[in-house]
TrEMBL record:
GO terms for molecular function: oxidoreductase activity, acting on NAD(P)H. Gene3D superfamilies: 3.90.660.10, FAD/NAD(P)-binding domain. The keyword Flavoprotein applies. GO terms for cellular component: extracellular region. The keyword Transmembrane does not apply. It holds the Pfam family NAD_binding_8. InterPro entries: Amino_oxidase, FAD/NAD-bd_sf, RNLS. Residues 88-337 form the Amine oxidase domain. This is Renalase, FAD-dependent amine oxidase. It comes from Xiphophorus maculatus (Southern platyfish). It comes from the Eukaryota. Keywords: FAD, Flavoprotein.
Amino acid sequence: MSRVLIVGAGLTGSLCAYVLKRVLQSKAQFVVWDKARGAGGRMSTSRPPDPTSHSADLGAQYITATAAYSQSHSNFYTELLSAGLLKSLDCHIEGLQHKEGNKNYVTPLGTSSVVKHFLSESGADLYLEYHVTGLRRCGASWKVERKGGNEKFDAVVLTIPVPQILQLQGDLGNLLSVQQREQLESVRYSSRFAIALFFSPDVVFSFSWGARYVTDSHCIRYIAVDNKKRSSDTPGLGPSLVVHTSVPFGLEHLENDKDAIQPIILQELQRLLPDLPQPVSIKFQKWRYSQVLTSVPNCPGHMTILEQPLLICGGDAFTHSNFDGCVESALSVCRALQFLLDVKQNISL
């Protein structure tokens, strides 16, 4: 049985594990590594230090499906809706531009619940705080190095951001063609900061909207009452507020420390919402790789670096930066991996 490692427990990684398990079933063992303490990646849901507040989505806020993707990816949407992990967005979002035919969904249990669902359904072995540092070809397999050890796998799928792929030590750099390297180096991401503010159960906000796109601020672009946005108010829990900065502000201050940036954002938030009560606690997040601005050109959804032993890159950088882009990439990775594993099996016969 082939051992397949998926690096990255974000949306694409979880979808790869889910789709590959459905297609290959018992032909392979799937393992997922992620350097973080929890699964989710950019679909991150943060729990408050004090359990008396609602959780907050620090990354992706809602999922927008076009009419075409609602149809072509209907099995994914139907499964999540049936499981209660997706529901139609029905709160008021100021400044939201709605396009004809699009459907907006929220995640009642937080965006990370979608990732965790696909990982659970895949049956993959998940290892958190496994930080991959290098890949070395070892005969017909890969020796994957991480902080604290290494293991061998027959195939590796990289779903981490492209700059982190290019930073991997070992043989990867020598295996990339000139064209592949140029394509990967052309990928561009937006950067931003996010802050979650958690409030006590007695707090009631004076504004009626569930979320708001801000146009009159030098640093804040988006504010959401997360529990209201999800329509998931739980009695006895205080509200949570999520703030996202603009991309220009994020890029300008990307290398600054939290202690320098957080007060600027909070001061601006106070200007925008002068009646906002004091939060019980605050969580700060820097998204160095927030959304893909420029993806790999003319790409089928993945990039095969080596066929034997198999090394494939996937993720929204190889499609486009949203839920359906991750689904498209996972399906593309699955088709490539299934074909190459079948070829390998036939050769061995």
